[in-house]
Amino acid sequence: MKTLKFSNNHKMPAFGLGTWKSAEGEVYNAVKTAIKNGYRHIDCAAAYGNEAEVGKALKEVINEGVVTREELWITSKLWSNMHAKSDVIEAINKTLTDLQLDYLDLYLIHWPIAQKKEVPFVSKVEDFIPLKELPNELTWEGMEEAVAKGLTKHIGVSNFGPKALKQLMASANIKPAMNQIECHPYFQQNDMLAFCKSHGIHVTAYAPLGSGDRAAKFKAEDEPVLLKDPVILNIAKAKNASAGQILISWALHRGTSVIPKSVNPKRIVENFEAQAVELSQTDMDEIAALDKNYRFLTGEHWVYEGSSYTLESIWA
Ligand SMILES: NC(=O)c1ccc[n+]([C@@H]2O[C@H](COP(=O)([O-])OP(=O)(O)OC[C@H]3O[C@@H](n4cnc5c(N)ncnc54)[C@H](OP(=O)(O)O)[C@@H]3O)[C@@H](O)[C@H]2O)c1
C-alpha cells in the first residue's frame, strides 16, 4: 500500500474510500466492506450528512478486532458555516462524536468560503460571510487549536487555489499538510501539483472517476464521461483491468492520494485492487494527453449575484 509521509513521519495510506453521496443505509455497509477488504483510509465530511453511520461502522470493525484505531486514517472536513475561529472546536467535536473517535488523522477546511452559522447550505447572497469579514486565516487559528487540543493529528485544506494557500501560509503557525482537490485525467492540475510539491503540501485527488452520481444540479448536460474514454478503455483492456482501476492507478502513479467513492461491494474490492495495476510511461503519456482543463465540480453552486465569491475568487 502506497503511503504519503507527513512532517512528523506519520504515514497516510494514499488510497482511501470516498463517502460523499453514500446514502443512509448504504454507507455503513460500504465502510465495513471496505475495511474488511483492506481499506485503511476513509474520507469523511460533516457536510455529507452521514458521519454518524460511518462512525457506527468504524466502531464495529474496531470492536470486532478487524483493525485498530491506529491502523486507520480518518479524514474529515470543517463545513463553511463553522468558519468562525470559536466554532471550529465545536464542529470537530461534533464530527468526533458522530464518528465515535477520540481524534482525527486529518481535518480539512472544506471550502475557502464562509457562510452564516445558522445556514447549513447557502441559498441566497445574504447567507454568505465575505472573506474580508471572516478570512481563512482566522479559521486556521481554530484549526491549529484543534491540533493543540489533540482532536486531530494534522490539518489541511480543500478546494484552495494557490492564492488562498499563500495567504494562509503567510500567517500559519502550522503549515497546511494537504490540499484535497478535484483531479483526474480531464483535469490534471499539473500547476497546482507543482505548487503544492514546492511547499511540501500533499494532494488528495477527489472525483477520480468523474463523480458520475452527482445530483443533476451539479452537472453539465453534455459532460464528458471519463469512465468511457477510449484511451482509458484501451489501456484497461490491455491490462485486463477496469476503466475505474486505470483511473485510480493513474492518480497513485502521480504521487497523489485518491479516494474513489463506492457503495457497491464488488466495485469497493475492484477499486482496492487497482493499487496493484502498473502503468508504463507510455500509458502515463497517453493519459497525460487527455487533459481538457475540465472541472466536473465547477463551484458554480457557490456563485450568487452581488456576492463577493466568484468562480475567479474561489479558484484563484
Ligand atoms: N473536498 C471536496 O470538496 C470533495 C468534492 C468531491 C468529492 N470529494 C471526496 O472524494 C470522493 C470521491 O469523489 P466522488 O464521490 O465525487 O466521485 P468518484 O469517486 O469520482 O465517482 C463515484 C461514482 O463512481 C461509481 N464507481 C465507483 N467505483 C467504480 C468503478 N470501479 N467503476 C465504475 N463506477 C464506479 C460510484 O458508484 P457506486 O457507489 O454505485 O459504485 C459513483 O457513482 C467523495 O466521495 C468525497 O469523499 C471531496
UniProtKB/TrEMBL annotation:
Residues 16-291 form the NADP-dependent oxidoreductase domain. The keyword Nucleotide-binding does not apply. InterPro entries: AKR, Aldo/ket_reductase_CS, NAD(P)_OxRdtase_dom_sf, NADP_OxRdtase_dom. The keyword Endoplasmic reticulum does not apply. One of its GO terms (molecular function) is oxidoreductase activity. Substrate binds at H110. The record marks K77 as: Lowers pKa of active site Tyr. This is Aldo/keto reductase.
